[in-house]
Structure formats: C-alpha cells, structure tokens
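call fold(seq) -> tokens
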Amino acid sequence: MYYYNGFKRLREHKSAQCGVYNNGDAVEFWSYSTKVITILYKAGKRFIECTGTYSPTTRRQIGWFLREYAPDLNYYDVKNIVGRGSVAL
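ret:
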C-alpha cells in the first residue's frame, strides 16, 4: 500500500501529491495539505462537501479521486457544490 503524508495514495496515481483518508463512514480527499472533498455516508445517504477546486493540478486530482471513490460523479458535479456545505447526492 502506498501513502502520502499518512494518507492512502490513489491507485492509479501513486506519485501524485494527494491522498485519501477513509474511516468507513467518511472518505476525505486531500491535495497537498488541503482537505478538498469529504464524502460522508450517513443513514443510508451520501453527502458530499467540496471546499474548492483550487489549481489546475487539484482539478485533475479531483477527477482521479472521483473515478476511484465515486465513479457516478464527475468534476462538474463537484464543482457545482463548492461552498454549499454538505450536499446529499
């Protein structure tokens, strides 16, 4: 298993400066030292929060993360919820 600053690396992008923390109830995507996306599973529902899309590099990393952890979503889905808090999707 590969890690970046204590976070699990993305399967297909092991050298990227990003990682994932997964505690079973929530999955957090971190780019460098910034928490970008949180996916929370609660009462049979999925809630997603995105703090921002930041740089072109982070935008690419968001796409990679979604393909691995939420393949039914894409970058534009997440972009539309930036700043809206935790959104049920």
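The helical segments are 56-69, 75-79.
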